[in-house]
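Standup notes
- DV: blocked on the single-chain target, sequence here:
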Amino acid sequence: MLLTSTQLLRHFRQLRRRGARGCSYPKQFVESTTIRRPFKTDAPVKDGPRSNREIRIPKVQLIAADGANMGIVPTDQALRMAEEAGLDLVEISPNAEPPVCKILDLGKLKYANQKKAAEARKKQKIVEVKEIKMRPNIDTHDYEVKMKAIGRFFEEGDKVKVTLKFRGREMAHQELGMKLLQQVKEDTLEIAKVEAEPKLEGRQMMMVLAPK
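- DV (later): unblocked, structure below
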């Protein structure tokens, strides 16, 4: 039999007076309830070693800025030494017991690591041969634009094939093409080496350069 609202209210008042311990509710008032836990997000992954106030262990093995081994010291003391030197306390060996920390310039360390990563990516890159086309009578502005493109390709680790195409009577002045390629070779001397010397194939003269 279902209870009226008045009977229900009276029932709950009786429960409060007696205390809820040991009391059970009538089955008709028991509902199946699913309790959902709040969604837990993963902690952000830190990029790079722990440094300064992120180091919360009581003691560390300290390496001074000059490389001297200072032994095991309280972390607070190591932080003060780093601050007094205008540098950072950086954890360099977290798995040691206690972890090894060094006083150094964190900005320089990050720059060095980024440079190493860039060099590694550069070595892994598949080298491509980019083609730059010129005319034997190219003007100064166009030449400068082409040379900037060549420099950019070298920075990306690619090789460059410089191609000159002769038209009509220009074939009678092949020395102009050879002179232009020689100029390209001289202008890239510090950043590139000649992989294939200039040669004529049909109406085209080509030279291949590779970054040093």
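- Follow-up: Residues 129-211 form a domain with the Translation Initiation Factor IF3 fold (CATH 3.30.110.10).
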